[in-house]
Amino acid sequence: MKNLRSQKILHRPRWSKVRALFKSMGYSDADLARPLIGIANSWNRIVPGHYNLRRVAEYVTQGILQAGGTPLEFGVIAACDGIATGHEGMHYVLPSREIIAGSIEIMVQAHKLDGIVMLGSCDKIVPGMLMGAARLDVPAIHVVGGPAEGGCEFDGRAADTTSIAEGLGMLKAGRIDEETYNRLEDQVMPTCGSCSFMGTANSMACAAEAMGMSLPGTANIPATHADRLRAAQHSGRQIVELVRSGISSRQIISRLGIENAIRLTAAIGGSTNMALHLPAIGYETGVQISMTNFDELCRTTPHIAKMNPAAAANVADFHLAGGVKAVMSEILPLLHGDAMTVTGKTVAENLVNTPKGDPTVIRTFQNPWSSQGGLAVLRGNLAPDSAITKPAAIHRDMQTFAGQARCFDSEEDANQAIIDGNIQPGNVVVIRYEGPKGGPGMREMATAMKLLYGCGMALKTAVVTDGRFSGTNNGCFVGHISPEAAEGGPIAAVRDGDTITIDIPNRTIRLEVDDEEISTRLAGWQRPVDKITSGYLGLYARLASSAAEGAVLKINSMSDI
Questions:
Q1: Angle at the Cα of 29 (from 27 to 34), degrees rounded to 5?
Q2: Which of 70, 363, 492, 534 is the right S-S partner for 31, CB 3.0 to 4.6 Å?
Q3: Residue 230: is its pLDDT beyond 90?
Q4: Are 384 and 281 in a shared domain?
């Protein structure tokens, strides 16, 4: 092939030293004459969603070789949200996204790779990899490891790992016994793979496909299915074809592709974290996605696919029902059908002759579960810049809620109050100083929601936070409150007993305190001492932007460093 990036550092005699370094590992002249394709593999034996990626990488390697490329595999970090939830480890999970993006950028640029296949399945890994691809503008494909199968039946549906947190609340409330609770450990997740509900991991896998960065129909093939390996091999062949044809990542990760991903997210009731990740991916490619843009796309997209946490069906069921392709085919009139994809074809071309989805999971455009999408942006005097919620997972009776604030300045304090039985029906649990800067790292408040559910109070209380949520949450919840408390946002002025009103249909969240009183309270407010000032989190806390801007790292001046 002509004009390969790699050949700029491999031609003789000037670059014989580089050739010698490759040859020290056994590469031949024939290997070095072909496109050098990186395989960014986030396999490890910590994250269940990544446990099968070593095998997936073998099939990607086969595909690259079949198509005439030379595979060069390297490692990328990956943290598990589920393991990190509820303790100090969660501070690191969102910030890891930037490390992942940077590591891919570094490896591709330092070694002049011609293309990249990115293997990652879980919450911050998929967006981090797509952010790295957006920075690079080289041919790129994303491959996920696939979702896990659902577990034992529990509380009327196939269990998943969040059933443990719900079960803890049930145990504390006397609704199940200890033996039943302990059995869940062995039964809720019978296979590896990304968690089987429509959380951030599977939402991002779907978004990557909708964006055009993964092969059609591959986002939700279960981790244990043979099709997962065939899709990996196909991706290996296709990345070489992208190098040949000169189709690079920014031709796909464009405004058209990102808006398609947002609409798909709205149509499937995806995770609230998508309001962080899709704007962040846009930021890396120079496409600004404001919360106003995000909300408009969600408002005008029908919610047509419903699954856990909004319904009993899990993501493996969604795949069997037709998956992302069936949903995109239904909402094609709203999509940018001319957007380019990794197939070398447009979205509309990829969707020709797509069968209808199973109507028990995927409804039609004309008969949706809801006329508006599964995510919503709220604003009001408590969240002047924006806040995010997920009406797709919130009971209709809870989409408007007014209650008395119970304020906590950390996740741990809120969770302990729930476990101790100190939260009452009608309370709005306010968890603050958990935003990008204040956390630092914007931890998930998933445990609080699951404990309330287990205690039987999911339909009697609400949670409001400048932190974020897992895609599995239900009940009444509003996150990403911006400005955050650590920036002196109005959430810092809330006091116990204040009334907070949440009105999702009208997209508002209000602190029922007059503006003058809020101003007076904030005038006397003092920012708490930073929780963490050293290491990577100290740097992240200084550079992280608002959740309303995707919580990306921004350097405005040298004083920020």
A1: 85
A2: 70
A3: yes
A4: no
